[in-house]
Amino acid sequence: MIIRTGVDIVEIERFDEQSPEIRNRFFRRVFTARELALIKTNASAAGRFAAKEAVAKALGCGIGTVGWQDIEILSSTAGEPTLILHGAAQAIATDQQLQSWSVSISHSKSHAIAFATALGTSGTE
Q: For residue range 77-113, what is the model confidence (pLDDT) as tens digits?
């Protein structure tokens, strides 16, 4: 069994301090259209941003090797975060035999935090 984890924390104020023009340009670069449709507050954006970072850390590569939009954080009908991997992120997960993911996001007044856990099987077991 393979278990990989990642965690990230973001100051929500980072998004509050940006001008609307810069924030919108940043959001279009980082978030997919489906994610943008779900983001209603800067806390929500910070949580999804932290989740993307946490997933990249669980993949063992960080952002750069995988693009922002290769990691998509959506919501189930119950509101829990759901992960969809695309492109390089999906290729790395497949190569590492990571098949099952869990993502958790929480935020306070000032910070958003996200954890990502991936489970897989080793070809040697």
A: 998 999 999 999 999 999 999 999 999 999 999 999 9
Q: Are strands 81-85 and 98-107 parallel, antiparallel or unpaired?
A: unpaired
How many distinct structural domains can be found in the chain? 1
List the catalytic residues: 57, 107
- CA-CA-CA-CA torsion sign (25, 39, 72, 17): positive
Specify if 125 maps to a domain.
Answer: no
Q: How far apart are CA 93 and CA 99, in angstroms?
A: 7
Taking the model in full, what pTM does it have? 0.93
* pLDDT tens-place string over residues 58-70: 999 989 999 999 9
> How far, rounded to the nearest angstrom, does the alpha carbon of residue 26 sit from its chain's CA centroid?
15
Q: Taking the alpha carbons of 79, 32, 27, 93 in that order, is the dihedral positive or negative?
A: positive
